[in-house]
Amino acid sequence: MFRLLKIITVLWWFGVDQILVQWAPRRWHHFLILTRLRRFTRSKGERCRLALEHLGPIFIKFGQVLSTRRDLLPLEIADELSLLQDRVPPFDSAIAKRMIEQELKTPITTLFARFDATPIAAASVAQVHRAQLHNGQDVAVKILRPNIKGTIERDIALMYRFAGLLMRFSSSARRLRLREVIAEFERHLQQELDLMFEAANASQLRRNFIDSDVLIVPEVYWDYCTSMVMTMEWMQGLPISQRAALVKAGVSLQKLGANGVEIFFTQVFRDGFFHADMHPGNILVSTAPATLGRYIALDLGIVGTLNQTDRDYLAHNFLAFFRRDYRQVAQIHIDSGWAPQNTRVEEFEIAIRACCEPIFARPLKDISFGTLLLRMFQTSRRFNIEIQPQLILLQKTLLNIEGLGRELDPELDLWKTAQPILENWMKTQIAWPALKRQLKNEAPHYSKYLVQMPRLLHQFLQNKDQTNSADMKALIQAQKHTQNLLRQLLTFVWSLMIGVILFIILFN
User: Up-side HSE of residue 178: CA atoms within 13 Å toward CB?
Assistant: First the structure.
């Protein structure tokens, strides 16, 4: 109750209650006249941001997640919430050492040749110390805050109660789907509270870019990792926000901006696995002579994944958008299942045109991918299209990358940089290597059926006339199974024929 009272007081002090009043039923407005009469010099978005900062680190992280819901929030508020910084005072290093020893069941002096007591970074969930292994390897050791799980459970329970109260009395709050947003936030936090998830994400991204000359991902030392402790390779670099220092170190900001766009689109379309928390605090630029100017990815607690259908949907949409083929954009939405099958293509096409044409009135280099995706999400909502969580993470990351790229190079042409990547990826989906890869993946599946085919065909023919048999049910099932196998075999042969035709067309 004390915590709830503090939340209400902070919201009132910063005038957030004035924003919430807009969601209250009209019959309540005359009771809330004191709330409405107060005047503030700061904007609504800034007041929301300051209130969350005063409520503490968990609410700061919630504000960061809330800022990604630009399909639901007013842009003024979403932009301000995206500025929230997750910085809190570090906890006692003696406690950190004790936690490491308890988790790894080994004295700290046995684990490390050196362990720096002063943390190099501290956030709401964990803090990081520099150390050195006995083989001379410098490492970064990340430790979760003590008792953080209890604190998070308490604050999330209060968020649910507060959201339930708002949604009970306000249709606007129900439209915002506050409980769903909190549930999404809770899922992110649960992953961040188990550092083995982050270690596995880092290991996967490192494998994906092991031969890259534009991105470095620190190596994870699994013998020094648990759910509470994570140890990874120490990286020598500068924060990407320190532009003057980067130029002094000999890094080209223009190349850095273009490389950032290339990295993002490669993660999304080649791998379907992308770093979904790429704000400046999580990105360094290498200053080591051998890797000067390469990006360094840190803090992979939140990643996004896209399946083949998602990637096809996005690639086709982006290419159709920039060709202004709005009919195709509408049809892609319906064919992929994102829009209801009963959606009228003509109406959807008109709505998309009204959404996108103002954007294309500007020079191509000034077109914002993030704004384009956001406008599309807002238009989709009118046609009862439910935006998927993976696309919301994608939108958030795209906005981060876009802002970062244009801050490094104001003349960066995002479309010119991204188009070759998209078009090359599209070609690989229909060319011979893609067909060969698909046949290789399906070969074990079809080989099993091909071996069984003679026996099943013989059984089918032998039992065809035994209509009076007591085992009629089993016979019908066998016939259906055989028909399915024949159908799949026909599909395989047909796919092979199409592949040969494509090969002749493309490489003749």
Answer: 21
DSSP state of 295: E
pLDDT of residue 436: 63
Give 62: exposed, middle or buried? Use CB within 10 Å, 0-12, 13-18, 19+.
buried
**Residue 419 and residue 417: Cα distance in Å, rounded?**
6
| pLDDT on residue 222 | 96
Say how many Å lie between the first and final Cα of the chain, rounded. 76
Instruction: Give pLDDT, residue 361.
Output: 65
The percent helix, strand, coil of the chain (3-state, each to 5) is 65, 10, 25
Please list, in sequence order, all residues whose beta carbon lies within 8 angstroms of the beta carbon of residue 482, skipping any fewer than 6 positions away. Answer: 456, 457, 459, 460
Q: Which amino acid is at 46?
A: E
- C-alpha dihedral, 55 to 58 to 64 to 65, nearest 10°: -130
Catalytic residues: 277
Query: CA 163 to CA 156: how far, in whole Å?
Result: 10
Q: Find where tokens 């990340």 sit.
A: 142
- Its sign, for the CA torsion 96, 98, 99, 104, is positive
Q: Please report the pLDDT score of residue 109 as a whole number.
A: 93
What's residue 468's pLDDT? Answer: 47
Cα 358 to Cα 376: distance, rounded to the nearest angstrom: 13
**Residue 196 to residue 200: CA distance in whole angstroms:** 6
**pLDDT recorded at residue 221:** 97
Quote the CA–CA distance of 142 and 230 in Å, as a whole number: 5
User: Could you give the C-alpha distances from 466 to 138, 196, 460, 483, 484, in angstroms and in order?
Assistant: 76, 59, 10, 18, 21
Report the half-sphere exposure of 300 (CA within 13 A, side-chain side): 27
Task: Measure the CA–CA gap between 389 and 40, rounded to whole angstroms.
Answer: 35
* pLDDT tens-place string over residues 207-218: 999 999 999 999
Burial of 201 (0-12, 13-18, 19+ CB in 10 A): buried
- Counting every residue written for the chain, the total comes to 508
Reference 121, options 151, 91, 81; nearest CA is 91
**DSSP E strand boundaries for 72-192:** 114-115, 121-122, 126-132, 138-144
Give tens-digit pLDDT for 181-198: 788 778 878 888 899 999
Dihedral in degrees, nearest 10, Cα atoms 100, 106, 110, 112: -20
pLDDT tens per residue, range 449-477: 566 666 666 666 666 555 445 445 555 55
Q: What is the pLDDT of residue 210?
A: 92
Low-confidence ranges of the chain (pLDDT < 50): 31, 33, 467-468, 470-471
